[in-house]
Model the fold of this input.
Amino acid sequence: MSFLNSYIYYIGAFGLILIGLYIMLVKHNLIKVIVGLGILDTGVNLFLISVGYITKGTAPIFSKPGIDSQQMVDPVPQALVLTAIVIGVAVLALALSLAIRLYQHYRTLDLREIKEQRW
Amino acid sequence: MRKIVSILLLIIVAFGIIRALVEIPFGTLKTEVGRYYIEKGVEETGAVNIVTSVVVNYRAFDTLGEIVVLFIAAIGLGAVLRTGREKKTRDVQPASLILFTGCRFLFPFILILGIYIFIHGHLTPGGGFQGGAIIASGFLLIYLGCKERRISRVASHIAESLGGLVFLGIGLLGLVFGSYFLFNFLPMGTANTLFSAGVIPIIYIAIGFKVGSELAGILDNLIEES
Amino acid sequence: MVNPVLLIAVPLGFAFVIPLFALFWKPAIKYLPPLALAFNLVASLLLLTEVCENPIIVSIGGWQPPFCINLVAGPLGVLFSVVIALVGLLVSIYAIEYIKGDDTENYHTLSLLLLTGATGVVLTGDIFNLFVFFEILCISSYALVAYLRDKAGVESAVKYLIQGAVGSSLLLIGIGLLYGLFGTLNMADIAAKIDSVSPISLFVPMVLLITGLGVEAAIFPLNAWLPDAHSSAPSSISAILSGIAIEVGLYAVVRVVFTIFGASSILLFLAFLGILTLLIGELCAFSQNNIKRMLAYSSIGQIGLILFALSIATSGGVTGGLFQLLSHTLAKALLFLAAGYIIYRTGSLQITAFEGMGKKMPLTCLAFTIGAFSLVGLPPFIGFPSKFLIVRAALATKETVFAVLIGLALLGTIIEGAYFFRVIQVLFFQGEEGKPQGQNPAFNERRPDKTSGEAPAVALIPIFVFVVLIVVFGIYPKLVTDVLNSAATELLHRYDYIRSVLG
Done:
């Protein structure tokens, strides 16, 4: 039980990554694939943050003078995740606009039908 | 067939990541770089929020790249969705009086919350991106509740470009005054007050306005298209 | 002494200013990218003369590495920056006339930001910064592939986006694993600490990084997006994508493998992958009738050859690989630019519709022919010394494996010659008997102009600058081999890199 307790964040992040990859590989509705991309991004961000965690640590803000700095978590992964979230949002926005245009041309969002570019 | 191949691929990826994660125990300290930022952060940058000092001062180049990515997404979205026709006048049912007045009433408070969050980015958790997202959600409320109002395209383009140019300008001024790009050249002040930490509040204000107007512009493009 | 930061900051400033110009002074927009790229070209050339001996390390923000992000302007990085600025400048001069419409400010902003992202990737010394600039490069290319908003363009862009986004997420997982293992994000710092963990635990991050960067570098199983994307984009964008984007992706793969991991065990696998990519690219190109798809498959083949040459990992091999990269960039950009106007004049993408264009557009078709000859590797052009260097380096290793692989590479060259000669024969040696009525759906936005003959002068100037460079470097390869040798030395000697960054 304590194994689960200490590794729950890794398992959660890793589970989200696998679910996201499965959706993107298997589903053929474009909106479902884009949702899968969002889940994959969330999983990767959760994994990055959990790399920096220290057990029983607090947020790295010196809000009152005299806070013990030995128990603070690592600030670098949080900065990385800020950037990664924004990049993920940008890709999702572009993907949705392309999906709108694709629907206007093909009248369907099924990826098995959208195969005009063949060999 | 495709499902079987994908599941096999995922099992291989799963084994690989598990094998790699065994080396990285959860909850222990791994880095000297993080320790250095926590110990020396306040005296070197003046910001009490260490994450802000990492984002805007130690790794400011990544933040510059990130706002460029958001800029590209906004322009790309506008380019892909542009129809060239007039804005269609949709025949929408006008909003009821309560909804309309409520949204108009709430909007300035949401803006104030967003501005508070990004101005105090170096003192409390928060910062430019978080404040900008809150400002954009205020605009979303206006689009949903008062259906005929629109953000002015000219104002949002000017806000985006000026925000980016202010950030870049501060970087080049750092090059001029301190011989390093993005050098923190304004005085530090005393920690834990509003006017401390040199250029960090100025950069966050520029980022907050830029991100807010960009996300509101993206929402505007998507709503107009439907 | 030019600060290398200006190579990234100045084009970025111009790109932020373009939307302001769009509100007040529209006709001036198409001249801003050439100005920014001309500055980049001059600055990179000035830097190149200084960095061949010692790389210039610039830290951003004034802190000491490894506690900050630093730019490493070594011979390899500045060489790439020169190539990016040169090709970008010539293609943006071509695009002054080629891109028409009332929303051209989007095109110019996005293409300038693509080139800025590429310059950032080659100059940076920090692995998360590499990821951020790599994303700038990829996202602007997703938006530019869909620029014409037609059926083929949007479909190709969606497929490219999905594959690219999965690749980026895998890259980010790899970066997270590296941070967890080593605790730092600086490339030189990771390289210095790489021996402190067992090689088995490095295997997964390395595979994830190569896969994530390999989607953009178009290595074999990851390049399904390339033929669609490069053939559906406007021709100036195809030139930038084939000439710059995939080469910069390959630079990122090579930088990770050689400098950070220093891995010698994976190089043989990369050599096999390179030859496999080469053969598949050339064979698929042989059966194409759509000219831009044919050129896109040929790009896949050439990237395979460059990857094979770089993974020989001797000084001769890496120099040959970098020389081949330079020659492929110049020739492929020339081919796409020339093909752009041939397609515009005939109104069709099918090769069989190009009959007799050699007489109507003699200069453009002559330039196309020179580009094709250079790519195949015929003597007075730049393709010949580069392929000769690769063959000599492969045979000098005295291992039968490399001799077999280089034999397969020469087979690929023969196939390449066959399909290019077919195009040249159609252009020059067939009259205009019955032109097939191939109306390609990609042109519903730009009606083809069949009346006038030659391409306009603004487009011919960059095309002929490419021709002159191809001929000059082919006759005097000594002009570039010194720079290429110092770039190869930097790539192979990782301890010098670590020492110059960390002191």
